[in-house]
């Protein structure tokens, strides 16, 4: 059995795999996951898989199971019995497995950062990340949706007549949005403005690492308006794989030994 674990800033995503296929997808609130299901042993964290409702892995040297981790928390939290790999590698492997593509640009928008990766002939050619500001992340969209009284899905349905939002900081952006509401702008147009703000934030990275095909992963990939904005503004084919939010965990399973044959 292979277990891939993406230790994200908002959610911990776990994928179980074996016999050449994915067998289960599980998502947990990050803080709740560490508080309820982990305990420290020396400098390592032991995960109680059975308490999570998952098979208890045999991670001894000859145990037969394998755990690979990646994500926001991998540099500060080491899982006992697991191997950790860089996020860029995990997401590249996951995207190639899910799509079968060998030449594309990968855009991953997570809870707290954004990543753009250039893949050529099945290899990592270049990448850029932005983890210094949350204005190009899922957390920003969640906060703006709350200000507008919308769910993330509702926010992601608006792209027409966007109100120009100039603040590039997530904190100042919230204040600016409140000001626009007071000015009387329609909620739908403000939501469209928020989605365009995300696009403008990631556009420079996408232009530098451009491809005719853009694979879009992360929780933000569910945002319909942003997908359409990327397609129309960049004139590219936007592909969202079947499991966008679990892409990093899937990549961990591929690294662990899951067949490199595409999941398509």
Give your account of this protein's structure.
There is one protein chain. The protein is α/β, with parallel strands linked by helices and 264 residues long. The protein folds into 3 domains: 2-88 and 247-256, Nucleotidyltransferase, domain 5, CATH 3.30.420.40; 92-133 and 199-245, Nucleotidyltransferase, domain 5, CATH 3.30.420; 141-196, Nucleotidyltransferase, domain 5 (2-Layer Sandwich), CATH 3.30.420. Helix content is 35%, strand content 26%. It has 8 helices and 12 strands. The chain has helices spanning 30-37, 87-99, 138-148, 152-155, 170-182, 187-208, 224-234, 247-256; strands spanning 2-7, 11-18, 21-29, 38-41, 44-47, 66-70, 82-84, 104-109, 114-120, 123-130, 213-217, 237-239. The strands form 3 sheets. A 5-stranded mixed sheet has the order 3-2-1-6-7. Helix 3 runs parallel beside helix 5 (170-182) and helix 3 (138-148) runs antiparallel to helix 6. The model has no long low-confidence stretch (mean pLDDT 89).
